[in-house]
Amino acid sequence: MIEVKNLCKRFDNQAAVNNLSFRVESGQFCMLVGTSGCGKSTTLRMVNRLIEPSSGQILINDQDVTSLPPEQLRRRIGYAIQGVGLFPHKTIYQNIATVPRLLGWNKGDINARVAELLTLFKLDVDTFAGKYPHQLSGGEQQRVGVARALAARPELLLMDEPFGALDPLTREHLQDELLRVQKLLGITIIMVTHDLEEAVKMADVIAVMDKGEILQMDTPEALLRHPRAGFVQNLVGGLDRALRLLTIQQVSEVMTTLNAGTLPPSTPTISHGTNLRDALSLLIWEHAERLGVVNDAGDVIGQVAMAELLQQGART
Amino acid sequence: MKSFNLDKVGCTLSCALLLSLFALPFVSLQPNRIMPGQSIGLLDAANPNTLIPLLPMLVLTSLLSLVKTAIRTRLVLTLLTLISLMYTVGASASQLLIEANPLARISLNASFWLAIFWLALLITDAAIKLALRPLPRLALVTLIVTAVMTLLTSGHWDSLSLLREYHNQTDFWSQAVRHLQLSLGSIIPAVLVGIPLGVRCHRSPSLKAMVFPVLNILQTVPSLAMFGLLMLPLSLLATSYPLLAELGIRGIGAAPAVIALFFYSLLPIVSNTVLGFGKIDTKVLEAATGMGMSARQRLYLVEFPLAMPVILTGFRVVVTMNIGLVAVAALVGGGGFGTYIFQGLGQTATDLVILGAAPTLLLAFLFAIIIDTLIALLRGGRP
């Protein structure tokens, strides 16, 4: 659990972060969203003390971050940034092993951990361990960047627009992968982004920031349905808000369960992990009224109907 | 029809090679050590027997240099031509001396030196076209140096005036050691001072604004003036503190040479350190700090390794520069190959000058190649 209390940061008497207080529960994915210069990156960098606050307090599991030397604190917190910042003179293995080595892990543990992380991010160990960063694609580099941040099993991962420099397709893949890994490991993530779509898709809780303050902190659904007037309303209240709402839920959450074989054979099917927006898109494309939902093995486990989908995106 | 692929570089170089070899004097026959000599062309100097290895090699190399194919064969042929040329000049000298008076000397002349130059360019061109990796490149250079040294020590060139001068000097190898001591002896302190100074300048722009003008001015002082300027304070020191004099700190000798070269070495090392550190991606540094590296760990694990190729480039500049400058240090009694150059100039004995100049050149060249190899290995194919 991360607790931020009355956090302030002034640069040359200009408030970058102004009296910020919020909580992120353990295992939650928290997004700080705002335009550039709103103080979101500054807030993030105060958590691992890359920037020292002017006043206020940050507690991680009730322990004040200033109670540890900054280096020791940072080794316990994962940190991934836009542009990755992989060490160009070190192999992928050495890059991922950085923090474990700083912590003095033994060689066997490091080997096992690097292999485990590469496998987790679907990178073949034998192919990638010995390569150098410049031999990898942008998406692969960013995967390694996240793997490196997770190397010493941190409970908290800080990410500063990690997917900002990637092409849309790669970005989407990596978002899905990060969500999968987060669910698997149960870590807490605080991520900074200016991309509302990314925030709505991934976050458990979104904090919208402007001029150094949090204007609203809510679940994606609550934020989209009940934005506060002013900045937040402008940010989330566009015409596509219904479609954004549909990206939050997966078909498995709204489907009605079905016994195998009761669906007409011509019905199009969709994977249970797909979000509702993509499901709607498929319905439109196929001229269909309903979709069969299949699990990873390909067995039909349920169905969603057009009306149910549309209902999810409607105002309440 | 398959188009004829003319190699412009190879064509130019081989034309220049043939032109220099046949149109300019190959050796000169001097009545004695210092009298001006009589120029002799290649065909007059060498009899058919001594030309046998050279001419076919020349023809083959020149023909092969016209096309862009078979670069590997061309490289081997060029090397063989180089060795044949050195063989021919040695053999011709022995021939010519048989008929001459006992004091006569044979000196190498323009056509020989130019031919060596063009052959070296042909070899370099071939090495570039083959895109030789650092280690094979070093091996090639080692091969050439070994071949030349074998030829020189075999006695085959002993009729040449250059080797006569060499045999007259009993201290050639101790001067060689001295030369290296002076040039490297000034660089090691310059590295120990220059790199930390460079790191500090990188961190503090105000320090950089103070240090760089000073180093720039030091760099512009002519070397002779620098030796002269150092002589006075050093001799004053030596007379006031006899202990220093016993340690070798005197107005003349090694002390002013090493100190002057130290000053000259600072600018390239400091500026390249600043450059190397400045080129590091700030994202990499942010990641290093964000992952929990201390300032010291970041410096040694990330910054130094990444800046090292650039720092080494500065180091290479300094090494080649100093090996050349040490030659001047002979004027203030520093010793080294410069001693022969100045003796030769005084006695108008050209070959003694060459005995000092050629090894200086060779040393500088060898060190440059070795450091280049090191830089390439450190970069490991990184952009």
Q: What's the total count of β strands of chain B?
A: 3
Q: What's the CATH H-level homologous superfamily of the largest domain in chain B?
A: MetI-like
Tell me the domain tally of chain B.
Answer: 2
Q: What structural category arises from helix and sheet content of chain A?
A: alpha/beta
Tell me what the structure shows.
Chain B: The chain crosses the membrane at residues 45-64, 76-98, 110-131, 138-157, 177-199, 211-234, 254-278, 299-317, 323-342, 354-378. Chain B: It is a multi-pass membrane protein. Chain B: Keywords: Membrane, Transmembrane, Transmembrane helix, Transport. The complex is a heterodimer of chains A (316) and B (383). Chain A has helices at 40-47, 70-75, 92-96, 98-102, 107-120, 125-128, 138-149, 168-185, 196-202, 220-225, 231-236, 241-248, 251-254, 276-286, 306-313; strands spanning 2-11, 14-24, 29-33, 55-60, 63-64, 77-81, 156-160, 188-193, 205-210, 213-218, 256-257, 269-271, 290-294, 300-305. Chain A is an alpha/beta fold and 316 residues long. Chain A has 2 domains: 2-237, Rossmann fold, CATH 3.40.50.300; 251-312, Roll (CBS-domain), CATH 3.10.580. In chain A, the strands form 3 sheets. Chain A has a 6-stranded mixed sheet with strand order 6-7-8-3-9-10, sandwiched between helices. Chain A has a 4-stranded antiparallel sheet with strand order 2-1-4-5, with helices on one face. In chain A, helix 7 (138-149) runs parallel beside helix 8 and helix 9 packs parallel to helix 12. Chain A is globular. The two termini of chain A are 32 Å apart. Chain B folds into 2 domains: 8-131, no CATH class; 173-378, MetI-like (MetI-like fold, Orthogonal Bundle), CATH 1.10.3720.10. Chain B is an all-alpha fold and 383 residues long. In chain B, 38% of the residues are buried. The mean pLDDT of chain B is 87. Chain B is built from 17 helices and 3 strands. Chain B has a 3-stranded antiparallel sheet. Helix content of chain B is 76%, strand content 3%.
